[in-house]
């Protein structure tokens, strides 16, 4: 189930979504084939994230597409989202699992093979691997790992994995060939005039 959901993973960016807004961008992107959505808004308060997440829960109801909240466990819990995604600096994943409970999805970002191996029995459901390439949507990212690094990290775990970091339509096949279960994108969908068409192009294999 989780592996299938990771195939085309949308990470939202309120600035890139522009006047269309996060909620409507997500609605259109899911219509195009997005299989998981992460609400990421670094400048919002927990209260604001809860409000947006609740709106996204309604948009996604009945679609089978899980909603994940980035870096805010309380917003994930109080909004009724399907889970949360944390980074290496957000505390131990075992603690996050205890707060979320056994039924919500928990994702963890990993930048090295060592971190991937350390996460194997930590209670997380999937790993975000990257950044594959440098990206403007996350200024404080680690050194890019490329497809070679992605393959090494994917091979180091039995957990489902999703690649992230500067990925576009033309990278879909190489990401899958490297052993990841899917790829996470930000600007390749949020920054497009037609999010539905942009999402559909990933899955159809078309190129920009």
From TrEMBL:
Q: In the Enzyme Commission scheme, what number(s) does this protein have?
A: 2.5.1.3
Kindly list the GO CC terms recorded for this protein: cytoplasm
The entry's protein name is Thiamine-phosphate synthase
User: What GO MF annotations does this protein's record show?
Assistant: magnesium ion binding; thiamine-phosphate diphosphorylase activity
Q: List, in alphabetical order, the GO biological process terms annotated in this UniProt record.
A: thiamine biosynthetic process; thiamine diphosphate biosynthetic process
| Annotated Pfam families | TMP-TENI
Please tell me where Mg(2+) binds in this chain: 71, 90
Q: What class of enzyme is it?
A: transferase
Swiss-Prot/TrEMBL cofactor(s): Mg(2+)
Domain Thiamine phosphate synthase/TenI: residue ranges: 8-189
Q: Which parts of the sequence bind 4-amino-2-methyl-5-(diphosphooxymethyl)pyrimidine? A: 38-42, 70, 109, 138
Which sites bind 2-[(2R,5Z)-2-carboxy-4-methylthiazol-5(2H)-ylidene]ethyl phosphate? Answer: 135-137, 166, 186-187
Do the record's keywords include rRNA-binding?
no
């Amino acid at each position: 189930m989780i592996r299938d959901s990771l195939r085309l993973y949308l990470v939202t960016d309120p600035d890139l979504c522009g006047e269309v807004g996060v909620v409507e961008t997500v609605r259109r992107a899911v219509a195009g084939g997005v299989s998981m959505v992460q609400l990421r808004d670094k400048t919002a308060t927990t209260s604001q994230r809860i409000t947006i997440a609740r709106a996204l829960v309604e948009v996604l109801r009945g679609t089978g597409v899980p909603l994940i909240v980035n870096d805010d466990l309380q917003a994930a819990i109080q909004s009724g989202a399907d889970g949360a995604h944390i980074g290496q600096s957000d505390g131990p994943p075992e603690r996050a699992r205890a707060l979320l409970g056994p039924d919500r999805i928990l994702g963890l970002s990993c930048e090295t093979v060592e971190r991937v191996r350390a996460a194997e029995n930590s209670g997380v459901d999937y790993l975000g691997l990257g950044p594959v390439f440098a990206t403007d949507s996350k200024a404080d990212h680690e050194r890019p790992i490329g497809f070679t690094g992605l393959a090494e990290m994917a091979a180091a775990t039995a957990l489902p994995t999703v690649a992230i970091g500067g990925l576009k339509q033309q990278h879909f096949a190489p990401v899958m060939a490297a052993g990841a279960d899917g790829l996470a994108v930000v600007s390749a969908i949020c920054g497009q005039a037609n999010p539905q068409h942009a999402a559909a192009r990933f899955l159809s294999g078309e190129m920009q």
